[in-house]
Write a structure and sequence with these properties.
Length: about 1100
């Protein structure tokens, strides 16, 4: 839809249409009160006001017209259209609107730009307005950059992302891009047609015969065709960037496979340059031998010619892709002429010389004789196949320059598959034709003619007037099996075949010389191998990898100096086959993972065919050369392990990730069909850590008994206004989960926004988990500051314990002497880091100013500033909590930091004292047992404390030992405590009374009306009635602390049965007092209460 260019829509122009609205730019100093305000001209309506520093204002105003149009224009900050808003002749065929659809609203219309560079490590990304931006209320004051009003008024505003994209388009305006013919078809044909076509195909069909020869070609083509189909499927499943095979594999299977095979594939292409150049040099040396023009000796001549050739090829490549493409086209023309020259030669009547060398034109007898195999000593089907297969490789030559293609999604499938078809037809045609014209053995002597019709040895040559029977007893120089230059002999003009050999070798070398740096550059850009970032840099508009070109040149030169083709070829073929195998496996894996993101536009593929292709590639690797295959797999495995260990920070949405999800989903669903069994119980914990980094000790102790065995969810509740809480929660989710991953904590992070803390925890207790993987244990830190906390916090704290029991979830309360919350220390750390950054920035500024070529006075001024005594705090080595110890944050914070790291350390020889006072199903016993299995706690022994009768201590000790042995839980000692129920001493009881005193009501010493009034005013206080009713329980808590002080003061950890407060009977403050007196002045304590369902069993 185009904008109306009439004067009615230009800014500040008088409209001819009296009912139209328009956008005016008015100056900030304009007097708004001066606006015309009669009944026919409503006052100017300002939709948005800007900051004072903005000189212009954007105003939407109405010119004289219908008042109803003005009233209906804005509702809730959005434009609305009514039947009276526009003239009757307004329609979609006439452009009278101020802006086209999608430009007069923040809600974006579908655009391809929003889907580009998603998850990419490079390239600008255009972002659509977030849901928050279009969902939240419009801000009353919006600041607009000066000069932007005109663009906004006309709907021409451009976001920074759009500007970045336009800049990218401008930068790439001169880039050379290739279509499917020049970019893919030509390259693939040249790379597939190698020297084998001219000097080995005749020997292959001589050994295997036409029948098996066709099967050998068909088997090789099957491998490449399946790989081509898989490549096409992957290439059409989204936009393909530069990197060829590496890009396809890495984005499908992930950086581990992509990084390992990418390095191998780039190296293979670099060595392939040497292989093709050496093949070219060998042909030239043979010509020099024939003309007796050797320079030194055959080996050194190959080195000299190869070195000169690779330098020339490097010059063509560095000159740019456009020159390289032109050279490839010229080489293809020469190659096609050479192939046509061969077919023409087959129909030109042979002379006596050629007949003596075994060429008789097309003969049915020769076809029949050559149809079956005739393997010489040491040769067989697979050995001949191994020699031919390298002639079928090269199908990725087009994909390797995917970044230089106009439309890779169309060019790669079309060009690759057509190239495979054309080259296959050529191979089959040459093989059948040469085997129909030339006999297997010939002497080359014209004296071996015989009278036609005389029966000599029954061969086809006998019927054609030649007797080559002596070739059965002595070696001959001619024929399919003896002469590698058969195609040159058969052709119409022999030198053209030599030119074809030159063209085939040089074109393949040039294609490999271009492919290797392109693939290597893409690998280096992804920064999977940190030390290779140097080679990621590109030059010029085409982003040419000049550094990669010279590295490839060095590698190629090193292998050229070997000057032995048979040494280079085997490993190269295996490297290429490894790439083909992974491409096929990538296609299978992506299909098998059933990811919604796998929807290739090229539908002619099958996942099982791709899997067959991958297996076939692996088998062919061993057929060609088993030791080279082993070397390839060892190198690939090493690189895979290295990349896996380094864990590169990339996310490409690989099929490995998709399959992990499918596997996890299937397993979770399968778990739902399995009934719970006590033998399979494992602690699955919700840990109220808040932000995980603020309570590391609480997370560490929980992680110690859930790592690799149970679920651990770090939970945070955001309390406050819903809008602010949700925003804060959403912005921190990924960061906090990333912190867990970075610190190698196997846990999930979950958060909720709620009106109060208890409601949030209640939601987490009910909704967390998935299927059978639902939490069964709540882990919380002890509220150390409860006596200073507001009453609502205490009610919420005790309330979540009640809620957990209501949901039949066990509870673990962890107490350490210094508490868990280190958020203050983290704030100090952030401040110190901020100061350090400011100091470094100041030093950099001073240094820059000292280096400026300014006047002496100015330099002197900055030199004085440079002598300021800027303190340098100890640099931060890592982000762990331990690094804070070197900072001056006060003695208290130092102790807090040390306490927060106590569970990270290896616990020395000591004990874990388990006070299993009440049977909760065994959770109190299971958790410490799991701890003893961990590396950090394995030196700690279990000591079990249980209550009992004084007169039955030995019997109960034996009974408990028997029970523990049936549970298969090792222990160091068992203690039966027979004096738990005696009264505590007076000093301990006095401490308890002092704790409860501030919270007591003391209603018993008041008259009844006063007492009732006090209860109404302070229902949260501890009444005398309540205190008296649970006096025995209070005695028990105080007495237990005495016993803990006596027996377990030196323990590394105490695990103790958590007392349960009956709802409606025990007040929150009294319960907190119990917990306080119970765990006071002790080592780290775990108060544990299971859900009273068995978690231990002695049945097998």
């Amino acid at each position: 839809m185009s904008l109306n260019t009439s004067s009615s829509v230009f800014l500040d122009s008088v409209p001819s249409n009296t009912n139209r609205f328009q956008v005016n730019i008015i100056n900030e100093s304009h007097d708004n009160s001066a606006a015309v305000s009669d009944n026919t001209d409503p006052p100017h309506y300002e939709e948005t006001s800007f900051g004072d520093e903005v000189q212009n204002r954007l105003r939407i105003s109405f010119r004289p017209g219908n008042q109803e149009c003005y009233d209906n224009f804005l509702q809730n900050g959005e434009t609305t259209r009514t039947d009276t808003s526009f003239h009757a002749y307004d329609s979609h065929t006439n452009t009278y609107y101020l802006q086209t659809f999608g430009h007069n609203t923040m809600d974006a219309v579908p655009k391809i730009e929003y889907y580009r560079n998603t998850g990419s490590v490079s390239g600008p990304k255009v972002n659509r307005p977030s849901l928050l931006e279009i969902h939240e209320q419009l801000a009353k004051n919006v600041t607009v950059a000066p000069g932007s009003a005109d663009r906004v008024a006309n709907g021409d505003g451009m976001s920074s992302d759009e500007q970045a994209e336009n800049k990218e388009e401008e930068d790439t305006s001169g880039v050379v891009k290739f279509g499917w013919v020049k970019g893919v078809l030509v390259r693939c044909m040249l790379n597939i047609w190698g020297v084998m076509l001219f000097i080995r195909l005749s020997w292959i069909v001589g050994e295997a015969g036409i029948g098996l020869g066709v099967i050998i070609i068909g088997l090789a083509v099957t491998v490449t065709a399946i790989t081509g189909l898989s490549t096409s499927a992957i290439a059409t499943n989204g936009y393909v960037r530069g990197g060829g095979a590496y890009y396809l594999i890495s984005r499908s299977l992930g950086p581990e496979f992509g990084g390992s095979i990418g390095l191998i594939f780039a190296f293979a292409n670099a060595v392939a340059v040497a292989m093709y150049v050496v093949g070219f040099a060998e042909t030239v040396v043979d010509l020099l031998k024939e003309s007796d023009s050797m320079m030194v000796d055959p080996t050194n001549d190959i080195r000299i010619i190869g070195s000169i050739t690779v330098v020339i090829l490097l010059g063509i490549s560095v000159a740019g892709m456009e020159w390289e493409a032109k050279a490839q086209v010229i080489l293809l023309i020469i190659l096609l002429i050479a192939i046509a020259n061969f077919f023409i030669g087959t129909v030109i009547p042979s002379n006596n010389e050629k007949q003596s060398r075994g060429f008789f034109n097309y003969q049915a007898s020769i076809f029949a004789e050559n149809f079956g195999p005739s393997f010489t000593k040491g040769e067989g089907f697979f050995s001949v196949f191994a020699i031919f297969f390298p002639a079928a490789t090269g199908i990725l030559a087009g994909a390797n320059i995917s970044g230089d293609l106009e439309d890779p999604q169309d060019a790669i499938p079309r060009g690759t598959m057509l190239a495979i078809f054309i080259t296959t037809v050529a191979y089959l045609g040459v093989a059948i034709c040469v085997a129909s014209c030339v006999v297997r053995d010939a002497t080359g002597s014209m004296n071996d003619t015989i009278t036609s019709g005389i029966n000599c040895n029954g061969s086809a040559a006998c019927g054609l007037g030649y007797d080559f029977s002596r070739c059965q007893h002595e070696p001959c120089q001619y024929g399919l099996m003896n002469n590698f230059q058969v195609m040159s002999m058969v052709s119409g003009f022999g030198p053209l075949i030599t030119a074809g050999i030159f063209s085939a070798t040089l074109s393949s070398a040039l294609a490999s010389l271009v492919s290797a740096p392109k693939v290597f550059q893409a690998l280096c850009k992804d920064n999977i191998f940190k030390g290779l970032q140097f080679f990621a840099k590109g030059y010029g508009r085409n982003n040419e990898p000049l550094r990669g070109y010279f590295l490839t040149f060095v590698i190629a030169m090193a292998f050229i100096l070997i000057a032995e083709l048979n040494v280079i070829a085997p490993i190269i073929s295996n490297f290429f086959l490894a790439s083909y195998a992974l491409i096929n496996f990538s296609c299978f894996h992506a299909s098998y993972a059933k990811s919604p993101g796998w929807r290739p536009a090229y539908g002619i593929y099958n996942m099982w065919v791709s899997l067959f292709g991958a297996v076939l590639c692996c088998a062919v690797m061993f057929v060609i050369n088993w030791w080279a295959a082993v070397i390839t797999y060892v190198i690939e495995l090493f690189l895979y392990i290295y990349v896996t260990y380094k864990k590169p920070d990339v996310n490409w949405g690989s099929s490995t990730q998709a399959l992990s999800y499918v596997s996890a989903l299937d397993n979770a669903l399968e778990l739902t069909t399995v009934e719970d069994h006590v033998k399979n119980f494992r602690p699955q914990c919700i840990v109220l850590t808040g932000a995980p980094m603020t309570r590391p000790a609480l997370l560490d102790i929980t992680h110690a008994f859930t790592k690799n065995s149970g679920l651990c969810i770090c939970c945070e509740v955001f309390v406050g206004p819903r809008k602010l809480c949700v925003k804060e929660m959403n912005t921190g989710m990924a960061k906090k989960q990333a912190w867990l991953i970075k610190n190698k904590v196997k846990a999930f992070y979950a958060a909720v926004a709620a009106d109060c803390f208890r409601d949030g925890v209640r939601s987490l207790l009910q909704a967390s988990g998935l299927g059978r993987m639902k939490p069964n244990t709540l882990v919380i830190g002890y509220k150390k500051t409860w006596r200073k906390a507001p009453l609502t916090e205490i009610e919420n704290y005790v309330g979540i314990i009640h809620d957990a029991f209501d949901f039949e979830i066990g509870v673990v309360i962890v107490r350490i002497s210094q508490g868990f919350d280190i958020s203050q220390v983290l704030q100090v750390q952030d401040e110190l880091e901020k100061l350090e950054r400011e100091r470094l920035a100041l030093e950099a500024t001073i240094k820059d100013n000292d280096c400026e070529g300014a006047s002496g006075g100015i330099r002197g001024l900055f030199k004085k500033a440079g002598k300021l005594n800027i303190s340098k705090p100890t640099p931060k080595k890592d982000s762990s909590i331990n690094s804070i110890q070197s900072m001056h944050v006060g003695e208290f914070n130092q102790k807090l930091v040390e306490a927060s790291a106590q569970f990270k350390k290896k616990q020395g020889k000591g004990t874990i004292d388990v006070w299993w006072l009440f049977d909760d199903g065994g959770l109190t016993l299971l958790i410490p047992y799991i701890l003893t299995l961990r590396k950090k706690w394995k030196d700690c022994k279990l000591r079990i404390y249980v209550g009992g009768k004084i007169n039955r201590i030995e019997e109960e000790k034996i009974a408990m030992a028997s029970l523990l042995s049936k549970f298969r839980i090792k222990f160091a000692d068992i203690h039966i405590i027979g004096d738990i129920n005696i009264k505590p001493n007076k000093e301990s009881w006095k401490v308890f009374e002092e704790m409860t005193e501030p919270y007591r009501l003391h209603e018993s010493c008041k008259d009844l009306p006063t007492a009732e009034k006090l209860k109404r005013e302070s229902p949260w206080k501890i009444t005398d009635t309540e205190l008296e009713a649970v006096k025995e329980k209070s005695y028990r808590q105080v007495r237990l602390n005495e016993l803990l002080q006596e027996h377990s003061r030196a323990a590394n950890l105490i695990v103790l049965s958590l007392p349960v407060a009956r709802k409606g009977s025990i007040s929150d403050l009294l319960y907190m007092t119990w917990l306080e007196i119970l765990t006071k002045n002790l080592p780290p304590v775990l108060l544990v209460r299971g859900n009273h369902k068995n978690v231990l069993t002695f049945y097998s």
